[in-house]
Amino acid sequence: MTVALVRLGLVAAVLLAWEVAGRAANPLLAVPPSATLPALRELLLLRSYPDLGASLLVTLREIATAYALAVAVGLAVGGTLGMNRLLGRAYGPMLAALYAVPAVVWYPSLMLFFGLDAASKIAFGFLLGFFPVTLAVLAGIRQVNPHLVTVAKSYGAGPLTVFGRVVLPATLFTLVGGLRTGLALSVIGVIVGEILGSKRGMGALINHAYGLLRTADYVALVLVTLALIVGTDVVAGLVERKARAWSE
User: Fold this and answer.
1) DSSP conformation letters of 169-223
2) Is 156 left (phi over 0), alpha (psi -120 to 50) or beta?
3) CATH number of the domain bearing residue 159
4) What total number of domains does the chain contain?
5) Which of 146, 129, 127 is closest to 82 using CA atoms?
6) Whose CB among 7, 137, 180, 185 lies 3.0–4.6 Å from 128's, allowing a Cys bridge?
7) Over the stretch 16-57, which tens digit does the pLDDT of each residue have?
8) What is the pTM of this model?
């Protein structure tokens, strides 16, 4: 209850400061919450942007595709590097170095290669989600007791069996954290990609409202996008909590 009250107090303080600053600023550049709420109502009623539902579906589809690819490729690459010490030592530091590069520098090349359609957004979301998943798998495998792997191999277990029956359960605690981070970054990658250049999706709507100086609609669209991001993180947090409880 105390934590909830503190959070509500913080939200109230932010809204109050936003209201004061919004009323004092140029209405073309900033709007207070009292002007945003009517715009948000019109948006949710599909009056200001009737294609809101279709744009949300496009963005969600791109996020799901990008994250699925990031998880599949990340598990494969991380498992391969973790199970092979030579490959892990050779390419692990390279992956960590590439992960440190600001991801936005890759987007112009992706946009030139894939165009303005959904493929470039999926590729950008995949790129952001791939690295945390791969590095989490690699770090988790390095923490596995090697004696467990030796015992499994001595009983005739193949590489896939060893990975699925021994390595994966032992790395679950580390893996779920990487999967949650990968999901958050995939969501951010897709939405940022849409904002930087897209014909459809939530980013395209945000660009449209911003370009026409429809500031209230712009803020309302940002709030809907923020709710989408927070919602995916909440779901990922619940899954992570259950996975951690099961692993313990």
Assistant:
1) HHTHHHHHHHHHHHHHHHHHHHHHHHHHS-SSSHHHHHHHHHHTT-HHHHHHHHH
2) left
3) 1.10.3720.10
4) 1
5) 146
6) 185
7) 888 888 888 777 778 888 888 888 999 898 888 898 889 999
8) 0.83
